[in-house]
Amino acid sequence: PVLLSGDPGVGKVEMAAAIHRYSEHWMCPFILVDCTVASLPELIQWLNKSAQFMRGGATVCFENLDASDRKSQRQLSTLLQSMDPENWRFIATARSGIQQMVGDGKFDEQLYRFFSQLSLYIPNLNQSRHNLEKIVNLYIIEANSRLGRQVIGVDEEGHKLIWEHTWHYNYDELQQAIYQMVLIAQGPFITAREVRTTVSARESVPGENGLPLEGTLEEIELKIIRRVLEEEKGNLSRTSERLNVGRSTLWRKLKG
């Protein structure tokens, strides 16, 4: 079992997929389960049945495992320890504070011990600033390939702006921004103008982008949740992660 922890946007699921891809289980299915959406009791029933007919096993990745409830966590722990470790590989992703959650009694210790036999922390973008230039160049190469552009790099002033900007959603946000910069670049280099244009377009300030601030605090909060949900195309999981709010809490607020 492998536990991947880190902040939102650092690529935990991508890392899980890479672990599967480069392992001896690479020909077996890779099953991704988002615990902010999936029902763990139903999943447990499915795993019980699957163990009987999927003789070759699979790699199951539990995304956002820390979002599941305590009762389901204990049931899942009991089931996983009973399954054949030769055929089944289990990976979990969680926020960087999961160890503290265990200490506070908010996450099942038995399940944590099961997954943390191999625990990997993925640093956020702020902790990897020394690699920022290399990361930006890699994203430019990828963007050129996908968008059919020929951007060479970022000029000095533009790189300074990228360095100084706070990327709240880490690599995911930076990659999306670089793709946009490559798309609008007027010359061989991304300039400060294109960096500013992209950053400005991506920042959504309540009250300045068509989001009225009239009403109570709860009403304004609901407007923000609906705006983010719309931007995430109705995906509750991504909305929950972006707002740093549990899916159940998010659902309760939307239901009123």
Task: Give a description of the structure.
This protein is an alpha/beta fold. The protein has helices at residues 12-21, 40-53, 70-82, 98-103, 109-115, 132-147, 156-164, 170-184, 192-202, 217-231, 236-243, 247-255, and strands at residues 2-5, 30-34, 58-63, 88-94, 119-121, 153-154, 189-190. α2 (40-53) packs parallel to α3 and α8 crosses α9 (192-202). The longest helix is centred in the middle third of the chain and has 16 residues, at 132-147. The model has no long low-confidence stretch (mean pLDDT 85).
Shape, per Cα inertia axes: globular
Number of helices, where a helix is a run of at least 4 consecutive DSSP H or I residues: 12
Overall radius of gyration: 21 Å
Helix residue percentage: 40-55%
Give the percentage of residues in beta strands.
5-15%
What is the helix/strand order? EHEHEHEHHEHEHHEHHHH
> How many β-strand runs?
7
Q: What is the average of the pLDDT values?
A: 85
Structural class: alpha/beta
